Amino acid sequence: MSVSSEITDSVKKYYGEKLQTSDDLQTTACTTPAQRMPKHILESIKLVHDEVVSKYYGCGLVVPECLEGMKVLDLGSGSGRDCYAIAKLVGSNGFVTGIDMTDEQLKVANKYIDYHQKLFKYPEPNTTFVKGYIENLKDAGIGDESIDIIVSNCVINLCKDKKRVLEEAYRVLKYGGELYFSDVYADQELSDEIRQHEVLWGECVSGALHWQTLYNLAKEIGFEVPRVVTCSSLEITKPDLKEVVGDARFASVVYRLFKTHKDSNREITQVVYNGSITGCENEFKLDRHTTFPEGKPVIVSGRTLAILQNSRFKEDFLYKSAPCCATVAEIKEEDPFVILASADSKKLNNGAQCCGSKCC
Ligand SMILES: C[S@@+](CC[C@H](N)C(=O)[O-])C[C@H]1O[C@@H](n2cnc3c(N)ncnc32)[C@H](O)[C@@H]1O
Where is the Methyltransferase domain (predicted)? Predict the structure, then answer.
């Protein structure tokens, strides 16, 4: 089925012709907010070629834990910064596929495949870029249950049919896999004036979902409840653009959505993290509420147990029956704007707006 529409054509022009580097952006929507990065991730990002980095338009850090040997798909990979950083971390036994619809972005990404292979000292390139639409991964040759982890950085908002994107992500993920992605969300349904604004659409603002809609879509499609990893507020400062958005507020949020078997064990359980995840030896943070200090028993909800036992994190934990009186709250839907307001009022993060105090 064809995906082409006025919106995709305009987005292609925006990323293919209008923007040359991240300095050309009109808002802060497509730039990563300051946040603490684990050293191994920082080091792998530092290895990525300068030209690739100069065309990075992401809005969050989409490098999850435990990547070694994984098959990763990046939706809307752009010039390939996240793909190459992840290519280093998956190692020579892992593989990264980036998919994008814009020729100019793909051209830059493809130019540096051999460069990174040599730099990483891998016998073969472990990265490929394909041209296609993320609403239709089948046409791009991505098979059912073929991917361990999907990442995406500031792209889904640019698609008209978000449901199709999430359905396709669900289809291609293996059971136990996850969609770990950063995107822009709004605190309200946006007016037609905002939705039809070409620059704001290109800047990842006009296509922002109301945050609640993501939870509804995830449930409908079959994902576990989305987990917030980090969030940060987006300021639109240019007076003409500010006037168009009025009182609408925007946040960039990193979510993780797991695909689990529906008949998984979902009993409250006691787990002990064994410290074996690279970069998270002292503690592993699954989301902003769920942290596992190494060697310490933690009681987890049924949903969290299903995630741990279905996923690549399974072997990083010991599992025991919880004491009979144990209770624990399930992760629920979270309004990112409430998270940000509470972070502001508590002056968390020493004045920074990102509310992921640590990345793992
Ligand atoms: C904001 S940029 C982000 C690029 C990259 N993820 C990064 O962090 O630098 C959005 C990218 O998504 C791509 N894109 C937008 N809609 C798409 C779609 N429906 N299918 C494939 N690629 C798409 C654009 O071509 C562009 O390269």
Answer: 68-220
Question: Are residues 273 and 131 part of one domain?
Answer: no
**Is the confidence at residue 320, as pLDDT, over 70?**
yes
Nearest CA owner, ligand 1 atom 14: 76
Q: Which residues line ligand 1 (CB under 6 A)?
A: 8, 11, 15, 30, 56-58, 76-78, 81-82, 100-102, 105, 133-135, 153-155, 158-159, 204
At residue 292, what are phi and psi to the nearest 5 degrees? Answer: -120, 100
Cα dist from 145 to 1, 132, 142, 176, 180, whole Å: 21, 19, 9, 10, 16
Shared domain check, 186 and 303: no
Band (80; pLDDT cuts 50, 70, 90)? very high
Q: How confident is the model at residue 3 (pLDDT cuts 50, 70, 90)?
A: low
- The CB density around residue 271, as the number of other CB atoms within 10 Å, is 22
Structure token pair of residue 13: 């022009």
- Please say whether the beta carbons of 219 and 271 come within 8 A: no
Number of neighbours of residue 64 by Cβ within 10 angstroms? 22
**pLDDT interval class at 300 (50, 70, 90):** very high
CA distances from 154 to 179, 227, 293, 353 (A): 13, 17, 31, 18
Residues spanned by the domain of 151: 3-258
Cβ atoms of residues 340 and 20 within 8 Å: no
CA atoms within 13 A on the CB side of 41: 20
Strand ranges, E, within the chain: 71-75, 95-100, 127-131, 147-153, 173-186, 209-210, 227-234, 250-258, 269-273, 283-285, 291-293, 297-300, 317-321
Q: Using the atom order of ligand 1, give the atom closest to the CA of residue 79.
A: 9
Q: What is the CATH number of the domain that holds 194?
A: 3.40.50.150
Dist CA 76 CA 62 (whole Å)? 12
What's the domain count of the chain?
Answer: 2
